Amino acid sequence: MNSTNATDALCLSDEIKQALDSGRPVVALESTIISHGMPWPQNVETALKVENIVREHGAVPATIGILDGRLCAGLTQAQIETIGKAGPAAVKVSRRDLPFILQNSSLIGATTVAATMIIASMAGIRVFATGGIGGVHRGAENTMDISADLSELGKTSVAVVCAGAKSILDIGLTREYLETQGVPVIGYQTEVWPAFYTRRTEFPVDYQLDSADDIAATLRSKWSIGLDGGVVVCVPVPEAYAMDESIMESAISKALDDMNNLGITGKDTTPFLLERIAKITAGDSLETNIQLVINNAIVASGIACSL
Ligand code: PSU
Ligand code: MN
Asked: Can you tell me which atom of ligand 1 is nearest the CA of 37?
């Protein structure tokens, strides 16, 4: 077995290395959303489109994944295609999976929010855009299914820009968990948590901030006084792409019934539910998903530039 230390496990593209060395803004992007969150070929098209959007907004995109036994930040187009074509055959890598994937260099590793935060933080990247974070699942009082994304947010200093949590999760319990972990939830131009496909829930965010500059200033204050850990920035899906709340609620509850009937548990639940919901809504939810990721990338770029 090879022995590995953090410096030789980490692999930054030349562009990311230079950007970080010269203090240019960088936005991290995850790869589980490519392999498990969207179907081929929209997954790769979206990943590349999001990278372009980040560039158009003045920052450098760093898509993160694990290839050839290395933690890579700044994947090439060919590497993004490899992950996108592998789809669910890629390994969905969260914190607990990292050492195993490093020891199996033939595997394709797609990083969740938690694993992407870890690698971004090692590289020195502070802002990360995605679609949705994992959370406390409905029924967690029985299953204990709580995403490792939440505990990662408690300790790793990266701001995660997302569209809130979809109601496959228990948003109330997710909020409580984040509070316990000391993770602030900022609403970008919203006073309530958005619900991913839709713009509003009944749950307030902790603080509403309306500009990238205000968010960047808050991140600087937090980290400059040594308060390690992440921040969630919730951005509602743009009005034009938001889904109808009652259609979404019925699609989600049908998908949850199917999941329970099929006995799907653990790390397979989120990918299963996303795919079922896309099928039930005849692809509408996928289009909304794509548009909200693009929008989050724009907000994240603004924060990275200001930071
Ligand atoms: N939510 C989405 N799309 C996704 C995910 C969540 O709308 O692709 C992925 C992210 O990578 C997130 C992961 O980190 O699912 C959470 O999985 P789990 O609940 O197993 O921790
Ligand atoms: Mn889980």
From this structure: 8
